[in-house]
């Protein structure tokens, strides 16, 4: 199936433009939900694609489902998926007011955040997850830069034992900084890094099997949530910040997505039941043709096809 053609048709039917702001992406999914709820064929076909390739129990825990969503958002809105060839470090000479070592890490961290860029030069970061995963991987946020001048590498450690791999461990390190009388300066470093690294709006998707939730989160609000948490002190900070894994920071999912706009698409409605009756018949017809063609039993194929097409037309009349 060439899903891009259906996406182009859907956009034309709903007078949707390629995004140059977060509201345009939000409108796309709102119109898609509206069309699905009304049983509009083009919307249902797109919804079925999202179900089969991204949200269903069969595929949602595969890494490939995240890539499928990136690709979908790209070709449905004329966007380009960012890759190593299109990502570039920001020159560190443009990052003023911080240690050059910190600036080097910031340049690298920021490069990795945008996942899709649209013709307008507007870009977004994409995150996908499943319902039982209560945290978001916010990507690289170099601990070497964050803690530089506040804790030594031996003090903040890695992600595991004695390091930064849990809320209690993170809180302990924050308390060490506060005990040294450096908390105010540390908050300034954290805020600078947050405002420099997380510059993009975020599209967050929960792949729920029979449902698909899209959250559109304004980058400014994301930054405010993270900065407000750290300014509240070590204990409040860990109400949002969970841990490090590798050099990536993990945060509480609901603290972030609750600040966004939510669009929920259900895949178990009667409209989808009807659509699957049709596609089921089509798949049977295709299978019959392939099997009998392989046997060169073309006369039998014609008889079976006639019967199956008749059944399909009868089903269509009932919808």
Describe the structure.
This protein is an alpha+beta fold. Helices cover 55% and strands 15% of the residues. The chain has helices at residues 3-13, 22-38, 41-55, 63-76, 100-111, 143-146, 153-156, 167-179, 183-197, 219-231, 234-237, 253-257, 270-295, 298-318, and strands at 80-81, 116-117, 123-129, 135-140, 201-207, 211-217, 241-245, 248-252, 261-266. Helix 2 packs across helix 3 (41-55) and helix 3 runs antiparallel to helix 4.
Offer a concise description of the structure.
This protein has 319 residues and is α+β, with helices and mostly antiparallel strands. It contains 14 helices and nine strands.
- Helix and strand sequence: HHHHEHEEEHHHHEEHHEEHEHH
Report the strand count. Answer: 9
- The parts where pLDDT drops under 50 for at least 5 residues are none
How many helices? The count is: 14
Q: Report the major sheet.
A: 6 strands, mixed
Q: Which outline best applies?
A: elongated
DSSP strand content: 5-15%
Q: What is the SS-derived class?
A: alpha+beta
- Cross-sheet strand order for the largest sheet: 1-2-3-5-6-9
Instruction: Quote the average pLDDT.
Output: 86
Q: Percent helix among the residues?
A: 40-55%
């Amino acid at each position: 199936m060439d899903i891009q053609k259906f996406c182009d048709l859907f956009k034309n039917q709903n007078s949707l433009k390629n995004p140059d702001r977060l509201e345009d992406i939000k409108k796309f999914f709102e119109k898609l939900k509206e069309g699905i709820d009304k049983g509009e064929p083009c919307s249902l076909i797109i919804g079925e694609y999202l179900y089969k390739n991204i949200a269903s129990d069969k595929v949602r825990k595969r890494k490939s489902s995240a890539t499928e969503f990136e690709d979908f958002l790209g070709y449905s809105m004329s966007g380009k998926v960012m890759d190593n060839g299109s990502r570039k470090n920001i020159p560190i000479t443009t990052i003023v007011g911080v240690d050059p070592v910190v600036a080097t890490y910031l340049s690298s961290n920021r490069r990795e955040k945008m996942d899709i860029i649209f013709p307008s030069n507007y870009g977004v970061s994409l995150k996908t997850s499943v319902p039982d995963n209560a945290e978001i991987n916010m990507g690289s946020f170099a601990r070497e830069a964050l803690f530089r001048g506040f804790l030594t590498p031996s003090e903040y450690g890695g992600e595991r034992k004695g390091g930064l791999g849990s809320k209690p461990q993170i809180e302990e390190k924050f308390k060490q900084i506060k005990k040294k009388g450096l908390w105010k300066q540390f908050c300034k470093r954290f805020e600078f890094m947050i405002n420099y690294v997380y510059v993009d709006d975020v599209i967050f998707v929960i792949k729920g099997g029979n449902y698909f939730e899209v959250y559109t989160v304004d980058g400014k609000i994301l930054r405010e949530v993270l900065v407000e948490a750290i300014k509240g002190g070590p204990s409040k900070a860990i109400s949002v910040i969970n841990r490090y894994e590798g050099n990536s920071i993990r945060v509480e999912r609901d603290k972030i997505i609750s600040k966004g706009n939510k669009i929920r698409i259900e895949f178990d409605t009667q409209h989808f039941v009807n659509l699957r009756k049709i596609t089921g018949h089509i798949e049977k017809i295709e299978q019959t043709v392939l099997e009998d063609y392989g046997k060169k039993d073309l006369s039998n194929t014609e008889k079976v096809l006639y019967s199956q097409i008749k059944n399909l037309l009868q089903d269509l009349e009932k919808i």
